[in-house]
Amino acid sequence: MKKALITGISGQDGSYLAEYLLDLGYEVHGIIRRSSVAENQDSRIAHLNDKIYTYYGDMLDTASLTSIMLKVQPDEIYNLAAMSHVRISFDIPSFTIQTNGLAVLNLLEVYRLFAPNAKFYQASSSEMFGNSVDDDGIQRLTTPMTPVSPYGCAKLLAFNLVRHYRHAYGLHACNGILFNHESPRRGSNFVTNKVVKAAVEIKKGLRDKLELGNLDSYRDWGHSKDYVRAMHKIINHDVADEWIVSTGETWSVRDLVEYVFSKLDMDWKDYVVQNPKFMRPEELKYLKGDSQRSRDTLGWEPEYTFHSMLDEMIENWMNKL
Ligand code: GDD
Description:
The strands form four sheets. A seven-stranded parallel β-sheet has the order 3-2-1-4-5-6-11, sandwiched between helices. Strands 7-10 form a two-stranded parallel sheet. The protein is built from eleven helices and 13 strands. The chain has 321 residues and is α/β, with parallel strands linked by helices. Helices cover 42% and strands 16% of the residues. The protein has helices spanning 12-23, 38-42, 62-72, 86-91, 93-114, 150-169, 191-203, 224-236, 253-263, 292-298, 306-320, and strands at residues 3-7, 27-32, 53-56, 76-79, 119-125, 172-178, 181-182, 210-212, 218-219, 222-223, 242-245, 251-252, 272-274. Helix 1 (12-23) packs across helix 8 (224-236) and helix 7 packs parallel to helix 9. Strand 2, helix 2 and strand 3 (53-56) form a beta-alpha-beta unit. Bound molecules: guanosine-5'-diphosphate-alpha-D-mannose.
């Protein structure tokens, strides 16, 4: 039985990955960060409580990472822990760089010293590209990385460290550059779930408007469930490498809003207002990823479309509220 250690197991991706690995017969271990609201610590994984092993730890506490690594002795390490909100990274830039950048260095050191035979997956991000895009309107591995947020800068540091550790120490350490990915488990301050939740609340008469920031940015949105399958394929490919995971389709925030409101038989223009509070000091305007190599070499394909993913999120809030 293979052992996986997931940092960030209580997040959207961590919870889906834990389910996926359990189905494959893995023994799943995960690190949970302490929160003052106990329910927030494990709301996404409570249903797995008797199937997985969890430990309190923190990416900023190298001693905790060391003791967990020594105890678990994993075959596969998935580093999904991060301060994952790009706009908030402008408010807490130093914390973001420490957690998403420097802490990855510490985790790599713990991995190198105490579990060097394990395979390592780093959750790298399309935010690393910033506003760089090839002439054909696509981002690929060769596209320059010029991040436009503290979050993107930290992720780029971690990306380079993972590559460096692979080359310098012969470790099986890989990067998955994942474009945006959503689901009913997405935090409701990310734009997809924020829009879906508010639209359903408006439909049910629980509120009357939705405040958003920039409606003119474009994202390549996939489903988290599809993307955790890619993580597993990436870490288990014979050669550790860098991989892009994306749908190759791009939609604007305006398209997103239009679709969700029209699905609920409403005109978004009657309810959506812009609030500068949700704008970013510097915005990544456009993402569209080329994942052809991942599809051809890893045999990965997304199952959800942008619309079927949003339909699932709408249904979730319709049932919940
Ligand atoms: N969150 C949020 N809230 N975003 C808004 C809003 C709003 O009220 N209004 C407009 N947007 C726009 C943002 O400016 C951005 O252009 C787009 O919606 C998507 O924002 P998010 O859903 O917050 O995601 P993100 O693209 O910044 O970051 C996500 O994707 C990255 C991969 O590219 C996160 O999941 C990151 O962790 C991930 O690495």
